UniProtKB/TrEMBL annotation:
<dbReference type="InterPro" id="IPR000843">
    <property type="entry name" value="HTH_LacI"/>
</dbReference>
<dbReference type="InterPro" id="IPR028082">
    <property type="entry name" value="Peripla_BP_I"/>
</dbReference>
<feature type="domain" description="HTH lacI-type">
    <location>
        <begin position="4"/>
        <end position="58"/>
    </location>
</feature>
<dbReference type="Pfam" id="PF13377">
    <property type="entry name" value="Peripla_BP_3"/>
</dbReference>
<keyword id="KW-0804">Transcription</keyword>
<keyword id="KW-0238">DNA-binding</keyword>
<dbReference type="InterPro" id="IPR046335">
    <property type="entry name" value="LacI/GalR-like_sensor"/>
</dbReference>
<keyword id="KW-0805">Transcription regulation</keyword>
<dbReference type="GO" id="GO:0003700">
    <property type="term" value="F:DNA-binding transcription factor activity"/>
</dbReference>
<dbReference type="Pfam" id="PF00356">
    <property type="entry name" value="LacI"/>
</dbReference>
<dbReference type="InterPro" id="IPR010982">
    <property type="entry name" value="Lambda_DNA-bd_dom_sf"/>
</dbReference>
<protein>
    <submittedName>
        <fullName>LacI family transcriptional regulator</fullName>
    </submittedName>
</protein>
<dbReference type="GO" id="GO:0000976">
    <property type="term" value="F:transcription cis-regulatory region binding"/>
</dbReference>
Length: 344
């Protein structure tokens, strides 16, 4: 019989791992009803905390974990495949853990390190705004991948990414160069201060550099519960169309959003790119084979993934100090965008 884990309890209770941990440790910062419900589920599930794992010497462990926040984002699929291959060649095992959108990824990391014999952690996705004191609680080396350069209270964390601001600017500059002046954007929720904020700020600056006024009515945010999925792109685009906002191009800050957007536009009787140009970001395989194929910023997946794994193993071996490595993306022009200059 498979052993019940703290994440199993969290899923049953529909709460984060950190909330389960607070209930188990009698932490005052938890709703009494929630605590009672969690403890009841723990008792019914015969869950036993794996305290022995905490006392094992991690120097003998041969496992790392990949914590993924945003499993619906197809961009991560290829990343994970490449990382797994590197890990396998190092004769390590690889544990893949999904982190719920509302969960705290650092709390999840701390708990999985307690339960598993881990040597290191890779974070894919998420919103890293955690204070130094929080990050310092992670007892093993870690690399933050695809999220951009971040710091731990002024001290740089190990990270691998593209420059999201620069690459987003590149895309909006391209759309402006095609003659588009009414460019709608689908981006992360309003309080996102990582990738979503960077890509939105670049959008704003590119418009300004082309003499195009920034119009907040053209900015459409995902909600906190939304993921970077086809469904979200479809849903948000339908909301855009219902508002009857005038636009000639739609920049979706992920290819999955762009593909969902194309479906909503088609259902509304609009043709891509003749009526509306659509652009994405990431360079996932599905965007190349969709009809019309999606103009995008292609991230160098293989390089990002390989460097992420390489950096983690260097940290584990003590050969490297935490640093940030930034790669260039590539503007890939396909069928979903069209010039409006001749039409004006």
């Amino acid at each position: 019989m498979e052993q019940v884990t703290i994440r199993d309890i969290a899923r049953k209770c529909k709460v984060g791992v950190s909330t389960v941990s607070r209930a188990m440790n009698n932490h005052p910062d938890i709703n009494p009803e929630t605590k009672e419900m969690i403890l009841k589920v723990i008792a019914e599930s015969n869950y036993v905390p794996n305290n022995s794992a905490r006392n094992l010497k991690r120097s003998n462990a041969k496992a790392i974990a990949i914590l993924v926040k945003g499993m619906d984002n197809m961009f991560f699929n290829n990343m994970i495949s490449v990382i797994e291959e590197v890990v396998r060649k190092k004769k390590y095992s690889c544990i893949i853990e999904r982190v719920e959108e509302k969960a705290n990824e650092v709390d999840s990391a701390i708990e999985i390190v307690k339960e598993k014999r881990l040597r290191g952690i890779i974070f894919l996705g998420g919103n890293f705004t955690h204070p130094h004191e929080k990050m310092a609680q992670i007892p093993v080396p870690y690399v933050i991948s695809t999220i951009g350069a971040v710091s731990d209270g002024g001290k740089p964390c190990a990270s691998v990414s593209v420059d999201d601001y620069r690459e987003s600017y590149k895309m909006v500059d391209y759309l402006c160069g095609l003659g588009h002046r009414r460019i709608a954007i689908i981006t992360a929720c309003e309080d996102d201060i990582s990738i979503g904020r960077l890509r939105l700020n670049a959008y704003r600056q590119a418009l300004l550099d082309h003499g195009i006024p920034y119009d907040p009515d053209l900015v459409f945010h995902m909600t906190k519960d939304d993921t970077y999925s086809f469904a979200t792109g479809y849903k948000v685009t339908k909301e855009i169309l219902e508002k009857k906002t005038e636009f000639s191009a739609l920049y979706a800050t992920a290819d999955t959003l762009a593909i969902g957007a194309c479906r909503a536009l088609k259902e509304a009787g609009l043709t891509v790119p003749d009526d509306i140009s659509v652009a994405g970001f990431d360079g996932i395989d599905a965007g190349e084979y969709y009809i019309p194929s999606i103009t995008t910023i292609r991230q160098p997946v293989e390089q990002l993934a390989a460097e992420t794994a390489k950096m983690l193993f260097s940290l584990i071996s003590g050969k490297e100090e935490p640093c940030s490595k930034v790669y260039d993306g590539e503007l890939v022009v396909r069928e979903s965008t069209k010039s409006r200059i001749a039409q004006q």
